[in-house]
TrEMBL record:
Upper taxonomic lineage: Bacteria, Bacillati, Bacillota, Bacilli, Lactobacillales
One cellular-component annotation, GO: cell envelope
SUPFAM superfamilies for this protein: Periplasmic binding protein-like II (SSF53850)
Subcellular location(s) per record: Cell envelope
Protein name in UniProt: Peptide ABC transporter substrate-binding protein
Listed GO biological process terms: peptide transport
Record-annotated Solute-binding protein family domain positions: 1-227
Principal subcellular localization: other
This protein's UniProt keywords: Signal, Transport
Gene Ontology molecular function, alphabetical: peptide transmembrane transporter activity
Pfam families: SBP_bac_5
Family: Belongs to the bacterial solute-binding protein 5 family.
Superkingdom, taxonomy of origin: Bacteria
Amino acid sequence: WDAENVHLTDVLVSVVKETGTGADLYDAGEIDYAILSDAFVGQYEGAEDFNTVPRATLGYIMFNDTKEPTNNAALRRAVSQAFDKELYAESVIQDGSTPANGFVPTGFDVDEEGVDYREAAGDILTYNVEQAQKDWEQAKEELGIDELSLELLVSDVDLSGRTAEYLQAQIQENLPGLTITIRSVPLQNRLEIQRSLDYDFYYGTWAPDYQDALNFVEQLTTDGGINFAKYSNEEVDKLVDQTRHELANDPVARREALMQAEKIFVEEDAITSALYQVSTSYLLSPDVKNFEIMPFGRTINLRTTYRAAE
């Protein structure tokens, strides 16, 4: 099928464990494509063969809704507005990833008019220290406390550790009286702890199964796939159900229902807060054409790729 548009007969893959090794192989002309991370992005940024593309993966925090004090919405709003996402993306991730202010990523769901879902929905619950401190005062009053300690659960990998330390520093600085401790465990253990609800809030990442804003929004329904918070809101469930049934053939009303549901669980209930949207930065030989980085799922698509020099 489509044989006239398929040009490659062979693809040689070099498996490398370190970003620096891949960059060196690329610079030596031994490979045509190399993924970059951290400091290597700054080293190559601006070069003709440097590229950055967004992917439909979010890094986020989620709160345990089954126990005090993290079942308090004012506390969750305070924490979610107390860290600078722009600074986080620039100083911690350093790979071209961008701040996320909503639970549906940019460039993922575009309607027939070419309008992106995130653009239409706008930013939700952004970095705002003044409002975070007001919500923190409200939370202290509602909980009857002056000080509080929360534990942040993360996986024991490099980025998760750096993320935890950044959140700890920002939240403690901007919300005096709130102490953040860090619990770092292997990923499988983290998932087990989430399922057992033995945590206050956690940091994780998630990528979709199919290209529809619904796939992100439905995660925070009562039976949502990554709803480790055990969060349940009847209005969110109702709106999502409508998008699957009576609004399924009305794209305008369907999108509006999804945006309403997202606003409820991100802004009003603040059960989760996205930190950043993943981007892939890479080097690609200028003579390689039709090379595609996929927004989710498999990383690259070489079906119609060809080398111009040939």
